[in-house]
Amino acid sequence: MRVNSHFIARSDGSFFGMDMSCRCALGVGGVIGADLKREGDGASPIGIWQTRRLFYRPDRTQPPETRLPKVPLRAHDGWCDAPGDPLYNRPVALPYPASAEKLWRPDHVYNLIVELGYNDAPPVPGHGSAIFLHLAREAYQPTEGCIALAEPDLRNVLRFLTPDSVIEIAI
C-alpha cells in the first residue's frame, strides 16, 4: 500500500488514481463549488477531501483491507443532517431528536462507507452533510451528493486509503 493516495471523481462519471480507473456515480444535482453547496441540494462538492474512516456492516461483510480506521456499524447509527443542531454533520445514535440519516439501511449502498472530510472542521450549518464514498446502485443511479463505486472497485480503492489520502471531486 502507498501513503498519501489521491483519487479523482469527475462529473463525467470517471474515477481514477493509483494506476486504476473505474466508473462512479455522483450527486443527482451535479457537481458544485463547495462554497455554493447547501444541505439537500443533491450536489457533490468540488474540492479535495481527506478520507477520515471506514464504516462497514459487520452482519453483511468482513472489514476490507485498508489503513483507514474501521468502525463497525450498528443498527442505531445515524448521521445528523439538521443544520441547526449542535451535532450537524456528525454521527449520532438513532432515534435522534433532530433530522438524521439512517446508516443501517435495507439496501446495500452503505455496507461500506468512507467518511470524507467535507464541511467537518468545523461544520458550517446548512453547507451540506454526510458526503461519503460508498457503494453504487446497480445502474449507477446518482447519489444525494456522495461518490459511489461498484463494490469490487471500492474494495480496490480501500487498499490504498490511509488517513492521509484524499478524494477529489472535479468537473
Summarize the structure in words.
- The protein is mainly beta.
- It has one domain: L,D-transpeptidase catalytic domain-like (Beta Barrel).
- The chain is 6% helix and 35% strand.
- The chain is built from 1 helix and 13 strands.
- Strands 1, 2, 3, 4, 5, 6, 10, 11, 12 and 13 form a 10-stranded mixed β-sheet that branches. It has a 3-stranded antiparallel β-sheet with strand order 8-7-9, with no helix packed on it.
- Strand 2 (14-17) and strand 3 (20-23) form a beta hairpin.
- The longest helix has 10 residues, at 151-160.
- The radius of gyration is 15 Å and the shape is globular.
- The two termini are 28 Å apart.
- The model has no long low-confidence stretch (mean pLDDT 97).
Sum this structure up briefly:
This is L,D-TPase catalytic domain-containing protein. With 171 residues, the protein is mainly β.
| Morphology | globular
Instruction: Look at the helices and sheets and give the structural class.
Output: mainly beta
- Residues in β-strands, percent: 25-35%
User: What's the CATH superfamily, by name?
Assistant: L,D-transpeptidase catalytic domain-like
Q: Would you tell me which CATH topology applies?
A: L,D-transpeptidase catalytic domain-like
Q: Name the CATH architecture.
A: Beta Barrel
The tally of structural domains comes to 1
Any idea what the radius of gyration is?
A: 15 Å
**What is the level 1 CATH name?**
Mainly Beta
Write the H/E string, N to C. Answer: EEEEEEEEEEEEHE
Q: In DSSP terms, counting alpha (H) and pi (I) runs of 4 or more, how many helices?
A: 1
Structure summary, number of beta strands: 13
Largest sheet: number of strands, sense, barrel closure: 10 strands, mixed
Q: Summarize model confidence as the mean pLDDT.
A: 97
Low-pLDDT runs of 5+ residues are none
Helical fraction: under 10%
Q: What separation lies between the terminal Cα atoms?
A: 28 Å
Protein name: L,D-TPase catalytic domain-containing protein
Domain L,D-TPase catalytic: 1-170
Active site: 134, 146
Pfam families: YkuD
